[in-house]
Design brief:
The complex is a heterodimer of chains A (about 140) and B (about 110). Chain A has one domain: DsrEFH-like (Hypothetical Protein Ychn, Chain: A), CATH 3.40.1260. Chain A has four helices and five strands. The longest helix of chain A is centred in the N-terminal third of the chain and has 14 residues. In chain A, about 25% of the residues lie in helices and about 20% in strands. The relative contact order of chain B is 0.24. Classes of the chains: A alpha/beta (about 140), B alpha/beta (about 110). The interface between A and B is medium-sized, with 20 and 22 residues. Chain B: This is DsrE family protein.
């Protein structure tokens, strides 16, 4: 885990902030799809999770979701695994940040490697460091 | 004039929010801005039918209206049910558009 202290924030093309509850709809799927599509086009992305979305990369999620009883042999990756795969595929252009306050409040500050914890009052730095921003799930 | 990519993800059945959001899109178009609306997730339901609502006014005003093909498939909605002027797209095209200089995105 990286605390991102006293480090220059890398500039990026797009900030995607997942602010809403992540499992009430297709929000997470859309966020992953958009992020991957942007990265595949060579764009750089800051991904920021707040609130319950910080749980998406919780270390305790493990690699796979519980087995599906009607499709026993298939493995369903957790969001933490998907995040790890994205980070390893785009190591220089994807920067994933989790709100430290929201993580700690939920006892979920143990994230998979590559996720950087940031204090909430630093969020505006990300707005300044990116050309465009998308807030998902807050209105 | 500015160029916007407005993403509607909730649809009319989630409350009045989507119609208000699309109403804002109409006002932007009428003010001379360039607007592309993407209907995604449950927002794709706004792309079905032919009633006179903000989306219809948007299309009449010349705005580009896209619908996410993946979200359509997830909901078993055939593209043939979409109202005229609404075009299915993939996320690749959305990302390409968002990265164009000057385009600002808003997600609802």
């Amino acid at each position: 885990m990286d605390t991102a202290k006293s480090r220059e924030l890398p500039r990026a093309d797009v900030l995607i902030a997942i602010m809403g509850a992540p499992h009430t709809g297709d929000l997470v799927t859309s966020a992953f799809r958009l992020t991957q599509a942007l990265l595949e086009r060579g764009a750089s992305v800051h991904l920021w999770t707040c609130g319950n979305a910080t749980r998406l990369t919780q270390l305790s999620l493990g690699d796979d979701k519980p087995r599906n009883f009607v499709d026993w042999a298939r493995a369903y990756p957790t969001t933490a695994t998907l995040a790890t795969e994205l980070l390893s595929t785009f190591p220089t252009t994807l920067h994933w940040f989790a709100c430290r306050f929201c993580s700690q409040e939920r006892g979920a500050d143990a994230h998979v490697p590559g996720i950087k914890l940031r204090p909430p009052f630093k969020f505006t730095d990300h707005l300044e460091a990116t050309d465009k921003s998308f807030f998902l799930g807050v209105c | 004039m500015a160029e916007y990519l407005l993403v509607e993800s909730q649809g009319r059945y989630a409350g009045p929010g989507s119609q208000d959001f699309l109403g804002d899109a109409v006002r932007l178009v009428e003010s001379g801005h360039t607007v592309t609306v993407l209907l995604i997730e449950n927002g794709v339901t706004d792309g079905i039918g032919s009633v006179s609502d903000p989306l219809g006014r948007l299309i009449d005003a010349g705005a580009r209206v896209w619908v996410d093909g993946f979200s359509l498939e997830q909901r078993a909605v055939l593209a043939s049910r979409l109202r005229p002027g609404v075009r299915p797209v993939g996320m690749d095209e959305v990302a390409e558009h968002l990265l164009r200089p000057g385009v600002q995105g808003v997600w609802h």
